[in-house]
Amino acid sequence: MDWRCLMFQNNARPKAIFIMWIQNHGRVVTKDRLKRWGLHMDETCVLCQADKVTREHLFAECAYANRLWTRLSQWAQVHSIVPNTWIQYFPLIIHHSKRKTASAMLLKMMYVEYIHVLWRERNTRIFEGASREHEALAREVVSMCYFRAHKKVKGLIENLYFFKKKKKKEK
Question: Does pLDDT of 83 surpass 70?
Answer without folding.
Answer: no
